[in-house]
Amino acid sequence: FLSLNGHHLEQRPFPDVVQLALSQSARSEVYRQALMQAQKRASRGQLYLDWVNANNQDSLSRLVMHPHQGSVYYACFSKDGSRIASCGANKALRVFKTTSGEKLLELQAHDEDVLCCAFSPDDRYIATCSSDRKVK
To answer: Can you say where the WD repeats lie in this chain (predicted)?
Structure first.
């Protein structure tokens, strides 16, 4: 866990280690301990995120990217799984290759934070919405 996530531990503000640990294999002790901590937090009304569709996360490759300056509000995969679209506080939409992290596209999409993005069913288009109350 530390060898995979050590680079996160020097960030400021300090990352949520429990949330990082929930990305580990569900069979690992790190995940088990993190889930117990997260459930304690939930009993006090706090939120935690966990995968509900990761049947075998050990077989997934791991790609770490920092696609935006500031917060990333949303990211999604294309239907064919070859691209990741992300959007955030920098008012931009960015698209990357899932295998390498290579940036394929960057657009200043809105005048304010881009809150969400989604690929069309045929993967030809991407829709965005923003706090500027526009959908593009």
So the answer is: 107-136
